[in-house]
């Protein structure tokens, strides 16, 4: 009888060959499908996921079943980066809390747009992930003052926080964050009508290493706080103030002279663009006069 000398994929050493040299090159959606092939493949994927340090659902969030999410991460205790953007259709505290609770080395968490989560998830992040550096909470309207204060108390090493459209937040919570998280380099307070000069000034005075600030649509921000920002934040590289109707060129001009990138054109430049739209061409104007 002839011996079958063929070698199958699963015959290769899992932890020495398949996990570090093959599975690490497969997109996450392929891993999700692969674990359904057989019990052996399911076990292999579990071994891989238990040692995975980055888990990014931003591209496939809507298509992954929540059961698969729970199954794939149930043995993982070494995650450093977790991106949950696009999981808004199905992700709740029930699925997320166990993952957060057993991953204390997380440095980056993005929950942007996860509308079915609650403040309990943010509190869990703050209590479990004390080495957190980057946090995305854009369009998470469930973020409130108490949960943000918990974050500030326990995650003082934060470098970037995205609070875009977290409309429950007011000046008191943002000022508290600024006083506790002195290493902030990137901050978005965009699309929040509650944000005033008080928040911006507190951020400027406490977070001297600030490089990027997004105030888009913060209608109550005025020139006074932008001048404070220019005075206290020498490392500022980018400022967004579109739709901040009370911020004028008098406060922005000193920042432009420092080559800070600002998302609104100077008044003369805006006028030329409008003129070009009307005339169909740009007239020559000597700007050095």
From TrEMBL:
UniProt pathway: Protein modification; protein ubiquitination
Q: Which InterPro entries match?
A: F-box-like_dom_sf, F-box_dom, F-box_LRR-repeat, Leu-rich_rpt_Cys-con_subtyp, LRR_dom_sf
Q: Which UniProt keywords apply?
A: Cytoplasm, Leucine-rich repeat, Repeat, Ubl conjugation pathway
SMART domains named in the record: LRR_CC
Q: Where in the cell is it found?
A: Cytoplasm
- Limits of the F-box domain: 9-46
Residues passing through the membrane, by range: none
Pfam short name (any one): F-box
Q: What does this protein do?
A: Substrate recognition component of a SCF (SKP1-CUL1-F-box protein) E3 ubiquitin-protein ligase complex which mediates the ubiquitination and subsequent proteasomal degradation of target proteins. Acts as a positive regulator of the BMP signaling pathway. Required for dorsal/ventral pattern formation.
Oligomeric and partner information? Part of the SCF (SKP1-CUL1-F-box) E3 ubiquitin-protein ligase complex SCF(FBXL15).
Of which family is this protein a member?
Belongs to the FBXL15 family.
Q: What is this protein called?
A: F-box/LRR-repeat protein 15
Organism from which the protein derives = Monopterus albus (Swamp eel)
Q: What is the lineage of its organism?
A: Eukaryota, Metazoa, Chordata, Craniata, Vertebrata
């Amino acid at each position: 009888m002839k011996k079958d000398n063929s070698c199958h994929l699963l015959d290769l050493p899992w932890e020495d060959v398949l996990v570090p040299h093959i599975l690490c090159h497969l997109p996450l959606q392929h891993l999700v499908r692969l674990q359904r092939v057989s019990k052996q493949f399911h076990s292999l994927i579990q071994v891989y996921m238990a040692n995975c340090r980055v888990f990014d659902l931003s591209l496939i969030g809507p298509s992954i079943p929540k059961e698969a999410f729970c199954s794939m991460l149930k043995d993982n205790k070494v995650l450093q980066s977790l991106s949950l953007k696009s999981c808004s259709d199905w992700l709740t505290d029930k699925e997320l809390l166990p993952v957060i609770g057993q991953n204390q080395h997380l440095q980056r968490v993005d929950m942007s747009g996860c509308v079915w989560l609650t403040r309990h998830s943010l509190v869990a992040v703050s209590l479990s992930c004390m080495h957190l550096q980057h946090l995305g909470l854009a369009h998470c309207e469930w973020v409130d003052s108490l949960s943000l204060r918990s974050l500030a108390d326990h995650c003082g090493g934060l470098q970037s926080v995205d609070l875009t459209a977290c409309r429950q937040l007011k000046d008191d919570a943002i000022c508290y964050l600024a006083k506790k998280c002195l290493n902030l380099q990137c901050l978005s307070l965009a699309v929040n009508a509650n944000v005033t000069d008080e928040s911006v000034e507190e951020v400027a005075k406490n977070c001297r290493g600030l490089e990027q600030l997004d105030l888009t649509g913060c209608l109550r921000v005025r020139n006074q706080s932008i001048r404070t920002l220019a005075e206290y934040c020498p490392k500022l590289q980018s400022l967004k103030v579109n739709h901040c109707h009370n911020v004028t060129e008098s406060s922005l001009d000193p920042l432009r002279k420092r080559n800070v990138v600002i998302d609104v054109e100077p008044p003369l430049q805006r006028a030329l663009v409008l003129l070009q739209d009307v005339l169909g061409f740009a007239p020559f104007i000597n700007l050095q006069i």
